[in-house]
TrEMBL record, chains A, B:
Residue ranges of domain HTH lacI-type in the record: 8-62
PROSITE patterns hit by this protein: HTH_CROC1, HTH_LACI_2
Residue stretches making up the HTH cro/C1-type domain: 4-52
Molecular function, one GO term: transcription cis-regulatory region binding
Keywords: DNA-binding, Transcription, Transcription regulation
InterPro entries noted in UniProt: Cro/C1-type_HTH (IPR001387), HTH_LacI (IPR000843), LacI/GalR-like_sensor (IPR046335), Lambda_DNA-bd_dom_sf (IPR010982), Peripla_BP_I (IPR028082)
Protein name in UniProt: LacI family DNA-binding transcriptional regulator
Pfam families registered for this protein in UniProt: LacI, Peripla_BP_3
Amino acid sequence: MNGQKEGLTIKQVAEAAGVARSSVSRAFTRPEMLSPETVKRIREAAEKLGYVPNQTARALSTGRHGNVALIVPDVANPFFPPLIRAAQMEADRSDLCVFLGNSDEDPKQEDKLVGRFTGQVEGLILASSRLSDERIQAHAALRPLVLINRDVEGIPRVLIDSGSGVREAVAHLAEIGHRHIVYVSGPTKSWSNKQRRRAVRMAADVLGLKVDIVAAAVASFEAGREAVGSILVTGATAAIAFDDLTAQGILAGLADRGIRVPEQFGVVGCDDVLGAATYPSLTTVSNRSVEAGKAALSLLLELMQSQSVRDVRYVLDTHLVVRNTTIGHGE
Amino acid sequence: MNGQKEGLTIKQVAEAAGVARSSVSRAFTRPEMLSPETVKRIREAAEKLGYVPNQTARALSTGRHGNVALIVPDVANPFFPPLIRAAQMEADRSDLCVFLGNSDEDPKQEDKLVGRFTGQVEGLILASSRLSDERIQAHAALRPLVLINRDVEGIPRVLIDSGSGVREAVAHLAEIGHRHIVYVSGPTKSWSNKQRRRAVRMAADVLGLKVDIVAAAVASFEAGREAVGSILVTGATAAIAFDDLTAQGILAGLADRGIRVPEQFGVVGCDDVLGAATYPSLTTVSNRSVEAGKAALSLLLELMQSQSVRDVRYVLDTHLVVRNTTIGHGE
DNA sequence: CTGTTAGCGCCTTCAA
DNA sequence: TTGAAGGCGCTAACAG
């Protein structure tokens, strides 16, 4: 079974089955146009020979390749793999092959990849694109194109709203008695960081909590650990970190000073990248990246079918996942 | 710039430049066959029109697609993203597009993916393949094929030898005073698991350590946590886990029981998937997955060029990364 | 150096 | 329902 062979074409199958080449073609693409028995005969002959239709020839003739491309800034950033996987699985259900591109956070590289893919795909997904609005629009004019976490008017997009989860986090902290918290910010230019910081500010205002901002130059374990000094001098009793990695760093810095979590200090991460796989397990904001990947691919499929370029803006809200860095086991 | 257009072929470029279609083709694929000025003229005409060669047509005619495929069991398994990224970057240097496949740990699915890709790629890489030797050999007969972490004779392969790092781990534990350790095993059918278990056994024998094997049904945080009971009854004072996730689970289970790490019990992980980003940071065995991805792609490139099917077996050794779950900060 | 001429393997009108 | 023929866009001999 599945003994594919080289250089095997419809021609040999046609001869073996005693039909014309066009019938062989139809037996695979439009069996309803042929009598059931002819289809059967052809399929059997094909099977016996180990014939497999040549995708490339098919694509050249129809313009349909059955391929899509997904480009991300960094495959190794733990935020993306689940998203990639979800998109993959969804593509699989439609028998599509997916090209993966790694832009390395570089607009030039991303542009190059799009160009390289565009000739052999029916559509693309750009996740957290680093491209300018203009370039995105230019590419979208050529092929169906869906954006993830990038808000360009007129281009179908899937947005993860971390604001909703962050607001829940603030409410949760208020509820368990915190009156003064700090937000440990990430990259200042990041869209997500701005969104999160603003959400913390607004929610804290509404609930009458005092909030300070502490900057962690970059989003990393070490940055979080080093920020602990600044965090503690504010007098706050809990911190919401830009992401989980930073939060883990804060946990380490706290442990260095013998401060117990969650009894003496509460910590909340963002993106739920570690799951429950740390100890103590991190209270964090869910990321919905799986849904985002799946939704983006579904959207792309729709786009590919009906060329109508509707202006879709699909927003996924997030929620707080309470684990053990804000409330102890017993409560 | 880069204003690609649909339905633009060599024909229009040929007319615009006043040459034959074959010259246009040559201007792009073999400029050295044309006079420099002709090349220039053609290229300018192409540029002005926004012409981009059609990859599909080219592939049909030459049999070369410029695509490769990489199939992994689970994109979201943190072991793979760095590997994928490395392969990607390497492919990029040769202007290759890479298809990514997720077999979902399922041989059938993997076989399906290979079949779907095989028609439009020049070669494939199978990472931790779940396929039978026979299927792998069948596929390798059709196209250049490189294996990662799978040892099939006659098929070029890149192997990460966790054995060397595991031996270092055992030596390290012996050196800091442990006399009785346990290996917490992962999936029994896994090649890596067998390799690691054997390495522990052998190294322990050589050093005169007592070693017990405790099975964690699957490799996961929860499995590790639940294994702690069985671990403790053996009387061992340290554990080497199949992977980092399991090790984290063990850490959690130990903490549940108030057992301090590393003072009362030592823990070593495998694969260095978390980096130093946990607290206490995990002593573990490096994974070399980046090198593996890069090497696999280089190997594939060689294979694709010289059809000589040499029996390459490229082994990457690993090393122990000592952090804080075996030795405290002070030492 | 450059033009002419066949295909690559398949799909798809158009007739029969 | 089936066959014949042309073409998708490009490359690769073969001439000139």
